[in-house]
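We emphasize that the prediction below concerns an isolated chain of 305 residues; any contacts that depend on oligomerization or on bound cofactors are therefore not represented. The input was used exactly as deposited, without trimming of termini.
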Amino acid sequence: MKLVFAGTPQVAVPSLTLLASSGHEIAAVVTRTDAALGRKRVLTPSPVAAAADSLGLPVIKANRLDAAATESITALDADLGVIVAYGGLVREPLLSAPRLGWINLHFSLLPRWRGAAPVQRAIMAGDAETGAAVFQLVAELDAGAVFAELTTPIGRHATAGTLLESLSRSGAELLCGVVDDLAAGTIRPVEQVGEVTLAPKLTLDDARVDWTLDADRIHAIIRGVTPEPGAFTEIGGARLKLHDVAPAHGLSRLAPGHLSEIDKRVLIGTGTDPLELITVQPAGKTPMKAIDWWRGVAATEVVAS
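Result of the prediction step, given as a token string:
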């Protein structure tokens, strides 16, 4: 089949790479425009744009699938549109432009966690498992019938970053299998069944730690917002990013937000058991071992907020 692929971040690259090595033709790759990154704000192509360039594929850069983008994509006369984390909505008439419409690789077990941050929200909610689904794109958010899905457990120490990286690879295989089956005419989608939950994009408020919550809940939230936007707390009015923490069950409780060193371990109080801070990043500095940061803290009593 002739395909048009739409995606932007790194998690979409395995799908593009695998489809490019298949027997299908990728007529064009649609991705968001170059973004200003780093302190010097250097315009940088998206990971998908860079991958498409290395594969020698034509690229359409657009932050919105407006009339101009719609005209360019429709002119390709594609059999199927494939979308993986593009970052924009596909509306009519573009939704119906490919002969078979569009399919979407989504990183959750639909209808659970429809939206922009499904893996993050699954971890933050303490879900035991998640997965990926390939579904028919429709006007309603992530509501189309599902062609195929896979399930994977969420490890106790998995972060959104590590889980997304793993699902991007297994999901790419799932997606390519669906494309092959659509080409052969041997697959039909099944309507979603079950309770709908939403996974809105993360904000900075999601990343601020509330130390009055129980330890396991805080640990899940920190893992869910790692690496982006990155969990943080404030100590003495200065922001401290929390890169890695671990439950410290069985130790004496501390008041929520109160820090202490026990056996060269930096502990912080929660609503239940303490958590151990392992890797932190003070404002304006690089990540460091929590014990090294702690030894540089001058206050006799440290309380996070």
